[in-house]
Each structure stands twice: as C-alpha cells, then as structure tokens.
Amino acid sequence: MPVSILKTYARLWSDDLxxxxxxxxxxxxxxxxxxxxxxxxxxxxxxxxxVIAGPAEERAKYAHASATVVVDxxxxxxxxxxxxxxxxxxxxxxxxxxxxxxxxxxxxxxxxYVQWTPELVRRLVHR
Length: 127
What we know:
Helix content: 25-40%
CATH class: Alpha Beta
Low-confidence stretches: none
CATH topology: 2,3-Dihydroxybiphenyl 1,2-Dioxygenase, domain 1
Largest sheet: 8 strands, mixed
Strand order of the largest sheet: 2-3-4-1-5-8-7-6
Strand content: 35-45%
Number of strands: 8
Oligomer: single chain
C-alpha cells in the first residue's frame, strides 16, 4: 500500500518565535496547531508553516532539509525511499510528536519525514 502524505510544511527560520507568530497568525487566520521545544530550538506549526526558532547555530543543525512532510507510515516510507534511490541520513528517532527521519532523495533534495502520534493525526488531519 502506498504511503500517504498527510501534511507538508514550508520551513521558516526565525531568531524569535514570539516575534514570528503574530504575522503568521494574521496571514493564516489560525492559531498554532503545535508549539514545542525540541533540543535547543523552538518549533511552531501554524497553517502550512513550520517555524524553527532559536540561535542561528542551533537552527543550522536542521537547515539541510527543505521541508517537513507528515506521512501515515514511516516504516513503509523507508522502503519507498530506498527503492527510489534515496538515502536515510538520520534514522527513525522519537520526537515529541511521534517519530521522524531525514532522507536525501536521489536528486540531492533532503526532507524531514514525520509520523505523528495517532492523537495528533486525529486532531490536526482528521478535524
């Protein structure tokens, strides 16, 4: 069965999450769906934007990926990626929202893939 993409986020980089959110709230007409700390950065998802905020040197650790893509099955995704010549650059690991991995596609594009917890899928995808 093919992997389903549930949501795709454009990544935005910010020094200060609290300064970034007011404009995004206004542009999207929405409050953040998620806001959390992850290692030394803060993350907020509002509309189709994922803001990654914190010191530049900390944000740089995640800058290699051009997008964050939420999928329904991270294990099946790995098989799909490998069969297409992609390389898993960061193996699956737990996160506050579920599990994630980073993969470099055969063309060099690098993406963060996330499988959310069932509760987040119910709340944010199947509203």
